Amino acid sequence: MAVVYNLFIITKSGGLIFYKGYAKFLRMDTNDSLRLASLWDSMHAISQQLSPIIGCLGIELLQADNFDLHCFQSLTGTPFLDDV
């Protein structure tokens, strides 16, 4: 079972609606969370356009050495990001 460290809710236009850090040692400041939301929205939109698969919904998982960033696209188009 994975632990969620951060939760982000982003508007369809790329603005950050909600941010909650659940781990006290991994908190982000306001500017970093806004930058991450904006960067994710841009990468998500570009990946939809560049994908060879028709109907691709964009990036669903970004894996790094220290964390996994999951994107859950709601039916309304609002992305939810969690840092695991």
TrEMBL record:
<protein>
    <recommendedName>
        <fullName>Trafficking protein particle complex subunit</fullName>
    </recommendedName>
</protein>
<comment type="similarity">
    <text>Belongs to the TRAPP small subunits family. TRAPPC4 subfamily.</text>
</comment>
<keyword id="KW-0333">Golgi apparatus</keyword>
<keyword id="KW-0931">ER-Golgi transport</keyword>
<comment type="subunit">
    <text>Part of the multisubunit transport protein particle (TRAPP) complex.</text>
</comment>
<dbReference type="GO" id="GO:0005783">
    <property type="term" value="C:endoplasmic reticulum"/>
</dbReference>
<dbReference type="GO" id="GO:0006888">
    <property type="term" value="P:endoplasmic reticulum to Golgi vesicle-mediated transport"/>
</dbReference>
<dbReference type="GO" id="GO:0005794">
    <property type="term" value="C:Golgi apparatus"/>
</dbReference>
<dbReference type="GO" id="GO:0030008">
    <property type="term" value="C:TRAPP complex"/>
</dbReference>
<keyword id="KW-0256">Endoplasmic reticulum</keyword>
<dbReference type="Pfam" id="PF04099">
    <property type="entry name" value="Sybindin"/>
</dbReference>
<keyword id="KW-0813">Transport</keyword>
<dbReference type="InterPro" id="IPR011012">
    <property type="entry name" value="Longin-like_dom_sf"/>
</dbReference>
<dbReference type="InterPro" id="IPR007233">
    <property type="entry name" value="TRAPPC"/>
</dbReference>
